[in-house]
Amino acid sequence: MAKTILVTGGAGYIGSHTTRHLIEDGFNVVVLDNLYSGHRWAVHDSAEFVEGNAGDQDLLADIFNRFTIEAVIHFAGHIVVPESVENPQKYYQNNCLVSQSLVEICRLAGINKMIFSSSAAVYGIPEKIPAVETDRLEPINPYGRTKLITEWLLEDIATSAPTEKPFKYVALRYFNVAGAAVKGGLGQATPEATHLLKVACEVATGKRETIKVFGTDYDTPDGTCIRDYIHVDDLASAHVVGLKHLINGGGGGVYNCGYGRGLSVQEILDTVTKVSNVDFPRELTGRRAGDPPALIADTKKITEQLGWEPKYNDTELICRTAFEWEQQYKA
User: Fold this and answer.
1) Looking at residues 156-184, what average pLDDT do you find?
2) Could you tell me whether strands 263-264 and 28-33 are parallel, antiparallel, or unpaired per DSSP bridges?
3) Known catalytic residues?
């Protein structure tokens, strides 16, 4: 009998891709999403959809009564770094308190497996590149702090859980998620998105006039920030791999999700120019609050311990799928 997984935030960018991967792998899926930044059309036709907040314990209790939930994959959270700097209370409320409420009702219902959507922002400005899971954690913005606090919450609960019903979790520290589904039909549709590749593709398709390059004076080869870009389908597959690991009795922990190689802002924009054949304008401006100069993942742990094997480590493929999605997507 297929196991049923609750996916919070399953109507969003990464959540919808992961839901597709879960269903294609034979799982049943219940999606819980308040549609704050997600879309009803992005929910897989085979998934059960419930509109609501991941911190609503009464609603969750009803879901747990209606469905036999094996595990929870928790995406629902705010993710815009500059907004977290301007409005930290919003981020602590949604990213920390909602997560705590969700974990509490899961434990009361006897659900003891969770995959958590964390972030490389927990490293802040890394002490070395690439960043390893055991490195010092000093986030430099409220978004990163809320992710780290939730990681601590999960770790402490897992440590305190009784051995006869252990609570196990996998926290995936995302680096820069990019691209659109290789099979088509899904992509990033976040309103007023701030992700570099999404904005670049919007400019290349005429939906925006220009893209800002925040900072050209970093200590990097071309002066712009360097990030580890991972295709969204590979990140989705990492959730399925982590889930199977827990279901099969494996222990929990935190894992970096990236490719272990960095690309600068200018390199990404140059690649979008190449795949789109559009020489779009770039506006060079000052640094943005909360941006570290470079973030690159050490991925040895997830590949060795979980057996995760990425398929789409190709910059042109990442940019091409994002551009083709933007061409056909109408808000």
Assistant:
1) 93
2) unpaired
3) 143
